[in-house]
Model the fold of this input.
Amino acid sequence: MNIIIAGDGEMGFYLAKSLTELDFDITVVDPHSELLKKLEGEADLLTIVGNSTSPEVLKEANVSNCDLLLAVLHDESINLMTCILAKKLRCKKTVARITNSELLDHKEMMKGLGVDEMVCPERIAAKEITNLLNNTVTQEFFDFGGGLLTMNLIRFVPGSPAVGKTRQELVDREMRCVAVVRNGETMIPHADFVFESGDQAYIICKASNMDGIEAISGRDEVKVNRIMIAGGGRIGRFAALNLEDRMDVTIVDEDRSRCEDLSCDLRKALVINGDATDMELMKQEGLAVADAFIAVTESTETNVITCLHARKLGVQRTIALVENTGFITLSQEIGIDTIVNKKLITASYIARFIVRGEAVSSKWLSGTNAELIEFMVGRRSPATRKPIGELGMPDGSTIGGVIRGQEVILPTRETQLQEGDKVVVFTMPQIMNRVAKLF
Done:
């Protein structure tokens, strides 16, 4: 697959490095020559210094033979124009990163202009935050099949009922552990794998069995009623809009004009103009009695530090926006419940367009380079010819769940897949397309 990435910073850099690991032909167009020199030294790809809204630059990038163009610059208008021009120059598929989420309500109009798909990382991040506050025993949460099947990241603490038990014993609870991260290493546990304290387990379960997740986690579900948000940018604003009708929300930002805008947008949330690192101010405004604290300022360091302060004051649920992917594992290890990262969010959205087969949705897992992909089983799929145990799933992959209509199946080796089934698969990136061929 030939992919062009139009970027102007870390988002394009991250996607380029990730996709080169999948053996795609990648061309990066970026106006910053120094950044491209650094990228060339770390990945096997082609770079072009220039503006992606220039037809000549796009032609130099061989856009007419491009299977997928990703426009992920900070400027939404440049991304949209890049996609429109690329489509006119016969690019097969275009994806634009946007900031104005209202455009998502006009997908057909944008597609007519040449923008096939749009991703708004901030809006997706706010939705993830909302889901996490509804499922407070998990560090990471994602649903498949319209919410019938869920993925839950659990860090096992000392005394957790799962510690000392095998993976097979979790199957009895209508769960399936598809991966474990232990000491930075990602592994697919076999039936006799024994869980240890400190393990991070990615567990697939039926949405109706969330009580089982709580039972093995060793943590009590936190009833979230009072929330404090540090940062009134797009993520903070979207999160407050999602939550203010059913929770007591306070949002803090040090930009006065932004606070004035927030006061107009939010009907019920309390808006405070102040510095989130001022702990005396935060305590005065109710941080110590908050059930959850969400730090989504533009500074990763501020987000991490304020979450740790919140935890010290007794806040039971903390969520931080961390832009440096290298900080993700460290942030989780020092006590922050959940990390949100816009690069991973964007990569998750884009992944469904870069695999062969009918990928319905996907989730790149934080703290690991692995991925969960929801495939639709096709009419002539090899997966319909043999039971799962005889499919020859590549090493580094496993099937976590099957959705058949409104029925959820946690499969065994004897399970027979059918045309139209939705199959949730855990896979390492280097074998992603080998896995996709099965479906």
Summary: The mean pLDDT is 89. Residues 179 and 421 are 22 Å apart (CA to CA). The radius of gyration is 22 Å. The chain is about 30% helix and 25% strand.
